[in-house]
Structures are given as C-alpha cells and as structure tokens.
Amino acid sequence: MTETTTRPTALARGPTRTLRLLASLVAVETLLVVGYLLVSETTVLSVRYVSYPLVWVNLGVLAVDAVDVPRPTDRRTLVAAVVAAVYFAVLAWTTGLVGPGTGDPFSVRLLWAVPGWGPVLLVGGPVSLALVPFEAIGYGCLAVLVYGSLVRATAGALSGALGLATCVSCVGPVVAGAVAGVGGGVSTAVAGAANGPFAYDLSTALFVVTVGALWYTLR
C-alpha cells in the first residue's frame, strides 16, 4: 500500500492561458492608469516608475497562478502557512506597510496616486498602516510562494528546507526593507527614493529575482 504525498506542482497550463491572463491584467491596468491620468491631469515624469507596480502585480499573480497551492489541512501545511504569514508580516513591518502606532486617534483615509502606487490606505491609531497596493499584492504573492515552497520542502528531504531557509532571494526583500526603513520611508519603493536614484529599479529587480527563484522551486 502506498501513500500519496500532496505537494504543490506546476500545473499543466499552456502558454495560451498565461497569455490570456496577462492580457486581461494589462488591459485592466491600462484602463485604470489612463483613466486616472485623464481625470487627475497628472503629469508622468518617468514611464518606468508607472510600470514598476504593474511588473510587481502581474509577475506575482502569474507566478501564483502557475502553481498548485494546497490548502492547509494538516499539521505540516498549517506550520508552513504560519511561517509564510510571519514572512509576510516581517516584510510588511520592515518595508513600512505596517508600523507602530502614532498615539493619535483612530483614523482611516485614502491617498490617491497612479493606480498601483495608489490608492494608499492610511490607517492611524494603535497600529499604523500605509498599504501601497502593488507592494501589498507583491508581498502577498511572495508569501503564497514561500508557503508552497515550504510545503514541498517539508514533504521532501531536510536539505530542501535548509535550501529555502538560506535562499538569499527569499530573505533579500526583508533585508532590503530593513535598510530602506532606516531612511524613515513609508515603503521599500517610496523610502528607496532617498537612498539613491536607482532604488526603485533595484527593489523591482530584487522582487523579480525572488519570485523567479520561488517559482523555480515549484515548477
């Protein structure tokens, strides 16, 4: 009698499905960005800065869509889910999406910006939130991929788990967020502006490498 181990695997999805999903995402994003620019009369100073949020969202969604992510139904998958949740929390904290309370009364407001960068959800009170859409989505996708990688690693050899724990690309966003946080910024991308002219480029490149590395372990 054999026991079947459930683990996330790459789905047999053809390029047509992926292209359709990407085309749908780009179409919706283009409408939102163009509509916002027309309504707000915002001037675009650099196309690449408008594009970076789309790269984060599209790559993250496509990567998560490309793999099977099992539901946490037993102790092994529950532990993996908790670790992934902690990973997301650390990313959110080090990049400034979540921070300590200001001591001010509870408040909620939206800061409008180009879709992807905004609208930013700002929450004050016991805990401060500054949820930049593309970062929240991007880090959420990373957490899902980390969860899938952990489930696969714990279902296999111990070396697989050690490989994930020591993966530079996995911890890279946390380290980068901590460094950016020293500058007192709201988020990795926003705070990065104070740390050099190529901070946006580097944070996006690091995100792409991280997603690629995690997707590679699950393909």
TrEMBL record:
Transmembrane segments: 21-38, 50-67, 79-100, 120-150, 162-186, 198-218
Keyword Transmembrane belongs to the record: yes
Keyword line: Membrane, Transmembrane, Transmembrane helix
Signal peptide: none
Keyword Transmembrane in annotation: yes
Superkingdom of origin organism: Archaea
InterPro entries membership: DUF7546
Protein's recorded name: Uncharacterized protein
Native source species: Halogeometricum rufum
